[in-house]
Every structure is written in C-alpha cells, then in structure tokens.
Amino acid sequence: MTTPEQSSSSKFLLFLGCAIPYRVSSYEISTRKVLAKLGIELVEMPEYNCCGLPIDPVSHEMLLTLAARNLCLAEQQGLNMVALCPGCAGTLRKVNKKLKENKELKEKINGYLKDTGLEFKGTIEVKHLLQLLAEDVGIEKIKNAVKKPLTNIQVTEHSGCHVSRPIEGVGFDNPENPQILKNLIEATGARYVEYTDKIACCGAPIAGVNDRIPLQLSREKLGHVRDAGAQALITVCPFCHMMFDTNQPRIERMFNESFKIPVLHYPQLLGLAIGFSPEEMDLKGLRVDPTQIVSQVFGKAEGN
Amino acid sequence: MTEEKPRIGVFICHCGLNIAGVIDVKEVAEYAKTLPDVFYTKDNRYTCADPGQDEIRKAIKEHRLNRVVVAACSPRMHEPTFRKTCAEANLNPFFFEMANIREFSSWCHPSTPKEATEKAKEIVKMAVAKARLLRPLKEIEVPVTNKALVIGGGIAGINSALDLAEMGFKVYLLEKTESIGGHMAQLDKTFPTLDCSICIEGPKMVDVGRHPNIEIVSYADLVDVSGFVGNFKVKIRKNPRYIIHEDCTGCGECKEVCPIEYPNEWDMNMGVRKAISVPFEQSVPLVYTINMDHCIECYKCVDACGARQAINFDQKPEEIELEVGTIIVATGFDIYLPYDDPLYGYGKYDNVITALEFERLILAAGPTGGKVIRASDGEKPHSVAFIQCVGSRNLKKYEYCSGFCCMYALKNAILLKEKYKDDVEVYLLYMDMRTPFKGYEEFYRRARNLGITFIRGRASHILEDPETKNLVIRAEDMTLGQPIELPAEMVVLCTAAIPKSDAGDMARILNLSRGTDGFFMESHPKLKPLDTPADGIFLAGACQAPKDIPYSVSQGSGAAARAATILSKPKWKIEPIVAVVDPEKCRNTKVKCGICAERCPYGAIEAPEKQPAKVLTAMCHGCGTCVAECPADAITQNHFTDEQIFAQIEKALEENPEGKILGFLCNWCCYAGADLAGTSRFEYPPLIRPIRVMCSGRVDRDFVLDAFRRGAGMVLVGACHLPYDCHYISGNARMKTRMDALAPMLEKLGLSPQRFRVEYVSAAEGLKFAELMKEMATQMKELGLEKIKAENAKLKPILDRMLAKKEQKAQQ
Q1: What is the pairing mode between strands B289-290 and B276-277?
Q2: Are A196 and A120 in contact (CB under 8 A)?
Q3: Which residue on chain A is closest to B343 by alpha carbon?
Q4: Which of B187, B233, B248, B510 could bridge across to B197 with cysteines, CB 3.0–4.6 Å?
Q5: CB A227 to CB B466 under 8 A?
Q6: At what angle do helices B701-709 and B785-811 cross, to 10 degrees?
Q7: Could you report the per-residue pLDDT of B482-501, keeping only the tens digit for each?
Q8: Residue of B nearest to A179 (CA)
Q9: Which of residues 196-235 of A touch B (CB under 8 A)?
C-alpha cells in the first residue's frame, strides 16, 4: 500500500531528530555509511529543530510551526528530506500534506514564521529511510550491492507503528500487513521468519508515564520473536529499538525472562551484507550482545 | 392540424410544506399569470392527490386550456400521473409539461428561500416556453410476446418462474451453473424454523423441472439482450456439458467409475467431486457434466453409461435466441471471502472459516458427513466463536448491513450447541443483534437459553498459536467496558453478502444501473422496489440488495406480478418520444450521408442510397442522438424538439445570464442524480437552470453555442458514466466526441475552460451532483462577473455568425 512519490532522486537532506544523535547513534553511523555505498548523498541540516511531535498534546499549532520551519529550511535548499525516525518522518509528512492542502492553515502558520524570514511553499517531500530504500534505491540495487548474502541467519522485523500510520497522512506500506521491511531484509539474503502478533506496538509512547505496560508489551513481543526462532530483531525506529534493545536487560529482570535477542537497525544488517565490518556498523553500540549472530554471519556456510 | 393559440394553465403545488415551506408559492403563481399565453393559474396543497387532479381537469374544461404545466416535484415522479389527468380531460397527454421546483429548488436550497423562489419562477417560465411549442402525440402500440425470461435459478427466480407459469405464461429459466437452487440449496437448515433447506427447496425445484410452462436453460450464459418491452431478443450461449441432456438418466454410474477428483465449489472447496458428476445430489436438471479442465478422457464413464450413450466429447457451445416480452433478473449474491483482511487471518489460519463453509461442515450431506471439524487436525473444536459483521457495516469495506447474518449466526450457533451440547463452548461476537421479522426475536431468545455466550464488541484482531493452531480473538467487551482476549479452537466469520462478481456484465447487457453498493438499482426504493428504469425488466431477490429467504420469495412473486402486467396484455403502449426524419431536409438524397444510421445506438435508422433516411419507429428508443448528429438538422425528436429546447434556453437566460449555470441533464443518470441531491436534502447554491433531455446525446452543440451567445455564466452537460452506463448504450459517447471537439474551439475563442463543463453523474450520485454545483458556483465567483461579461462580449459576434447559418436554414 505505497504511495510512491514521483521524484526519485539521489540527494537528500538528512533529518536526524532529537533522539538518534544522542541515544541511538549506531543507527545514524550505519545509515551514513550504507547510503553512501548505495549512491545516496546525504546533505546536513545544521539548523534543524525538533519535528514537533512531542509537543503535540500541549499545542498542535506549535507542532505545525516547528515542523513547518524544518520544511522551509529544506525548501530553501530545494532538496527532499529523509528522516531516520518514523515519528519525525510521519510528523513532517503529515504537516507537509496538511499545509499544502489547506490554504487557510498555511497562511496562519506562515504568519507565525514571518519573524524568522521563512515561508512555507510546499515544494519538497519528506520520506522515512524505509521509503527511500524501497523507492529511491530500490530492491534490485540493494540486492546488487550485497557482497556477502546473510544466508546463515534467520531474523525477523518490527516495523513499528509510525512508519505506516495513519494511512491517510503517511500512506506508506500496509500497517495491518507490512511487507516493505520484510522484502528489504530478504534482499540481504537473510531468512525471514514470521512471529505471532507482529503488528503489536512496542509500547514506547506510554513509557515515561507508565513503565510497566510498555515493558510488558515489549516482553510479549520478544517472547513471540524468541518462539519463532529468530536470531535477531530488525528495527527502523529509535524508540522501538530502545524498547527492545536498551530495555531488554530490564525486561529480563522485571519479568524473570531470558531473551538474549540482539536488536539491529536495518542499515546495520544491510551494512554487514554489503561488506562493512561490525566495527564500521557500530555494532558495539548495541546493548544486547550481538556477538553470536555476528559470528554466524561470518562463520562457515551451512549445509553440504 | 389546427394551429390553435396556446392556452396554458399553470398549477403550482405546495406539496404540503415540501415546496411551500421554502418557496413563496403564491408569488410564483402570480408570476406565472404574467407570462404570455397563460390563461389560468392555481396553487394547490397536493396537486397529485384526487382533489388536485380534479382541479386540473375542471380548469381544462372551464378555461378551455390546451396546455398544462404543473410546477411541483420531479417529472420522474409524477409526469405519468398528470399525463393521465390530462388524458381524462380529453387533452392529449403530451400537451403536459412539468416544472421541477421541489427536487430542483425547495429541497436543495432551503437556506435561501428568496433565491429558491426566483429559481422556481424561472423554471416555470422555461416550462411554459416549452409548453407553448408542444405538439399532440399518439402512443405507439407494440405487440407483446407473452413469454418471460427469468435470469437466475435461486429461490427468488424459482418463485418468479413458478408464479408466471401458473398464470399460464411460458417461462425460460436461465441458470448459469449446472443446477438451479442457488445459495439456499447449499444451506443446512433455515431460520427461524430450522427446516432442512434442501428439503423445502427440493420439491420446488422439482416442480420447476416438471412444469409444462417452464423451460430450464442451465449451464448457460446470457450473451446479449436487444429490443424493448414486450419484444426482447435474448441471445444465450449453452455451455457444453459433454452429456446429451435428453439421454442422461442421472443414474450416476459414470461418477462411480471416474478416477479423477477435484475440489467441489459447492462444498466451498472443502470436499471433492468427480470429473464427471453433478454438484449435489438433488440437482435440477439431474444431468451430469464433465469438467474438461480435469477430465483425462479415460472413457471409463462411456463404458459405464453403456447403451444409453449419453456422453458426447464432441459437444460444442450452442447459441440460441429467445424472444420474450419481459425479463426478471434474479441473479442473487456472492459471499465476501476476506482474504484481503490481514487482521482476521482468513486464508492464513487453518481454523478460521466463513459461515458458508460452516454450513457445509454441519450439513449431514456435506464433505464431513455433518461433523464439525477443524482443518488443522480434523478434530472437533471444543470452543467455536462466531464473529459478526465481517466486511459489513464497515466504511472501509462495505458500508451496508448484509441483513441476514445475525439470523444465520444464531442458527449455526443453535445447531452447533444442540448437536454437541456441553462438549462445545459457543461464543458470538456481535455489534447489534438484528432480528426484526416474524419469529426472529424468539429465535434469539432460544439461542440465549441454550447457554451460548453473547459478547457485544467487534473483534479487532485474531492471533494464531503456531503449535496448536488455536486462535485468540482480541475484542472489546462493550458490556463490561473491557478489552478481552478470547481463546477459541475455531472461528467462523459471518461475512458480507456482496453483488455477484459478474454483476457488471449483467448490468451492461441489460442496461441496468447499479447503486453505490454495487447491487442493481430499482426504480424507486420505496414505491417501485422491483422495477428498473428499463421498461419490462424487473428485479427479484438478493441481486437488488441482500435479503433472507422469505423476502426473496416475496420479491420473486412480486416480480412475477409486475411482469404479468405486461405479458397479460396483447399490446403494450410505448411513449411516442421518437425521432422523425424530415425527408425534404434530409441530405442523403443528394450526397452520401447516412450519419444518423451509423450513429444510432440501436440501428433503428435506415438510410438507403439516394433516399431520405427513415426511423424504424418501433425500434427507436428516443435518445435523440441522431437529432444532434444530423448535419442538415433534418431530424426532430418528438417532445424534445430543437425549437422547444431553444425556447427553454432563451427563457432561462433572459435575466442575469452571467450569474447562471445552464445545465443539460440526461434523464436517466444526471437528472436522476440531481433529483437525488434534492431528495437527500444536499444543499447547493441555486445557480443552475436545468433543461431535461432524455439522453446527453441529444445535446446539440448549437445549444451550447446559443447558451453562451445569450450570455450564460456557465454551461454544464450532465451525462451517464462512460463507458457502460448510458441508458441508450452510446449516446453519452457520441456526446463526448461532440463536446471534445467543441470545447477547445470555445477555449480558443477566449472562453475560460471552467465555464463549459461535461460531467458524468449517476442516478445514485446525489452527493456528487451537489458537490459539483458547489464547485461550479465557487469557480464562477472566482472568475468574477466582469471577466464573464468581457468574454461573452468577445464571443457574441462570432457565435451570432455561426448560428445565423442555422437560423437561415430553419426559416427556409
């Protein structure tokens, strides 16, 4: 259920958002290297601000204004944006669409932006990394870039919620039956396994208000992933990653479980397949030890 | 013909408060009096009621009226009523014209009563202008073939066929599949009596098979239908069974020896049938069929058949042609199979099935001999959950309620519980329990008393345990106000009833409209639920909308009665709104023309060499396409003449033309859609002045030119959707070609493109019409009066020149 945007290009402004540079830097590190190898040029946005999503419950107009400012910066450069965090990507996309379609709203927000000298015109597009990989790079190119197919391992994925919801605003992949990340994983040669209740939320949005519920949700997910026999869980969202990776030891303690499931960002997985080393992909930045799966990747081929 | 001076009577209806609540009816009546040739005006509370009609008849006599205009509801509502009134007063019924000020004014402009009244006055003015130019017409009588075709051998079609046959008419019952019976024959028991379904239907099927007046044409497809009411020609293709119908005794010995099995669709692909077999034992006709996709031609069946020699591998499809007077469409419904819904796991999880599959499981004659077992392990489930409204009542899928699912879920739950008693836990997850008819509420109580657990809440997600293949249903129990996770060993989805997959083809062949829900559209949802806009074609059963067996049976009998009103007459009267060629003006006598003959969608015009073209009146359906296509303006359409339409254009644009949208709306689609906008009370700005034509094909380009010459702000041509919806097959396509050539020319001459619109609005698209009106009004405001006037001034001399040639010819 994709809405491919017509403009397929190779130069994008990189929108990092707030969480990734500070808390999940391995996502950024691996993405930069992998995209460079795939022929995508990432341009820095030194003056970007928060996408606005966290402030939405307090002031929706503040969200619109914050997001609009980022969009204006991109318009000034005449480049499309790629965001690594689905929350940022979804927010920027939704605001972009809303302001393009609603003239009155656009005029109002431009009114707020007047003092900054910026004006929203609606000339660029925003994509999440997943959409960029699927549309602007394409499965074929990814397959061709794979030098070391990861046929030794079987993994599964958690696409998360913001990357495809709401359909009307984000409009990418089918949230009830996500396929894109699965296809991208299979393009690396890795075996993909299904697990029960794949589309359940990781719980991150409630964390901070009530910790037990999201940890319980993540615990159930990790349990299903383990039961399905997956050796790693692949994510494309900093918050999902934090729930499953950073919080995994805490979940194990709280619920008396043992998972030991490494959680990789997709670019890290693809990077290994392309030929980058685990160090280059900053696998040491992961909390749950990925040593075992890494050694399987580089170990002897199965069979024969 | 004596050219009497017109003496027009104008009757303005209050329609209770429907019109009078918005429009100042007295003001309109006063205004009508000022119009030339109007000798009498009256306003009535309910003109269509007896006293109202009496008034008209009296006025005709007392005031020697020779034209009558009624300003009231839509002509699609009451034109026939008032034509009769005139006829009863010895006035030719075609001296009557209707001014639609209800659907087209009071109902759709309630917030602007002043503008609505002004619009009403102008609509009356236009109607009076047309009325002046009306001519008396005589109805054409055609003979009636007193045979009927019933398409579809389900329970509705069966009843139609039996009723008509009992009345003495010959009936052809066309059935696409190998046997009549339809979905009812697939069921185990029927609610609320728990009668065995095939036990009650079987005898009826046999009656049909045996009735001397019914001829079953089975395993055959409808190919083409042509003609008109009383005189349909139907082409049917009989598909080869590879069995000689007359010689097959239905003994089944061939089936015993056949080595090939394939999935039996009748059993919802849970059971098998042989390559030579019948779909079920009680098939009517009881004739076997070979499925050539699976047959290996081992000829064992031929051996078993022996002396009867009923098998013929050389059989070819056979096309037959039938002549019938009426057609009843009873093609039924399909079941939604939710493969596309990833949250319920249908098609992925072994133990999630649809209700029809459940019927085939619990049926004693089904593939498991009546044992309800799970596909994953062949074991009896200890818990079964029924989920209601799968696909139905869902804005993202099918908005409507499928009507019978609550009842059949109760039925299946009751059957399950009564069969396995305490061995099975039965749950039913519902949104509402809809059990309105006779015995239905009692049936619901019976289910509850059996200890079936009813949970009010829509299931959101079904998960499967990969080991046991058991299921977990996530839902909200709305009675408790809590989310629940309900484990069940089997889940039965009660899915939506949907239009048959070939409904589109059927609609195209028969010229039927389909509603927004995809089911066939009736003429009027309240008063004419079985008629279609095509005279002589009727609907019965679930093809019109999902319904249960008693309702289908009733409609079957109802449709038979409707059909009989035609079949029982030796002759049927047809409206004389046909085309007539003026042999003096026809240029086929001088040059090789024949454009009309080529463009007529019905092939109803002959244009032999060197001779004037001639319309075959009985075949003319009255679209008017030939009239607009004729380069010599030699053809007239009775009751929709050029003169009459030009008069309406003139009157519509007499005052403040720049602020008006002149609309040519085709009777069957766009005009009906506009009616629906009014009926649904969708409000829009009162800028349009509508001119009704039977078909958009009638809209001559000269009408458009004349409208702009007179200063119209905007012109709209409203037609049926391409490519298949045109009531006259291709009138809309001809119109499109014509306007596609005209529009760029006008744009080059300086006309802003948004001022000339060609739009496609179906009879079901009331909302679309209202939105279109709003859009055009906004665009007109954006253009601005000054710009429109300037463009008009520039256009006028050019258009004057173009139309002068036509006017010159008309005076000759």
Answers
A1: antiparallel
A2: no
A3: A176
A4: B187
A5: yes
A6: 130
A7: 999 999 999 999 999 999 99
A8: B342
A9: 196-197, 227-228
CA angle B81, B85, B89 (to 5 degrees): 165
Residue ranges in chain B whose pLDDT is less than 70: 1-3, 809-812
User: Is it true that domain A11-129 has CATH number 1.10.10.10?
Assistant: no
pLDDT tens profile B249-275: 999 999 999 999 999 999 999 999 999
Residues of B with Cβ-Cβ distance to A179 under 8 angstroms: none
What does pLDDT average to over chain B? 94
Determine contact, residues A21/A43, Cβ cutoff 8 Å. Answer: no
Q: State which residue of chain A sits closest to B469, comparing Cα positions.
A: A196
List of chain B residues whose C-beta atoms are within 8 Å of the C-beta of residue A196? 463-466
Predicted-complex ipTM score: 0.82
- Give the B window 12-71 contacts with A, CB below 8 Å: none
Record the tokens describing residue A284, joined without a space: 């040491």
CATH for the stretch A144-297: 3.40.50.11810
Domain range summary for chain A, segments of one domain joined by +: 11-129, 144-297
Burial of B422 (0-12, 13-18, 19+ CB in 10 A): exposed
Among B630, B645, B569, CA closest to B594: B630
CA angle centred on B767, ends B765 and B772, rounded to 5°? 95
Task: Identify the pLDDT of residue B604.
Answer: 83
User: Among partner residues B341, B342, B463, which is closest to A197 by beta-carbon distance?
Assistant: B463
Render pLDDT for B125-145 as a digit per residue (tens, 0 to 9).
999 999 999 999 998 898 999
Chain A residues near residue B461 by CB distance under 8 angstroms: 197
pTM given for the model: 0.80
Residues of A with Cβ-Cβ distance to B345 under 8 angstroms? none
Place of tokens 């964390």: A207
Could you give the CA distance from residue B678 to residue B770 in angstroms, rounded to a whole number?
9
Q: Are B569 and B526 in contact (CB under 8 A)?
A: no
At B487, list the tokens.
Answer: 């484990």
d(CA B549, CA B404): 9
Q: Per the structure block, which two tokens stand in for B232?
A: 């349909």
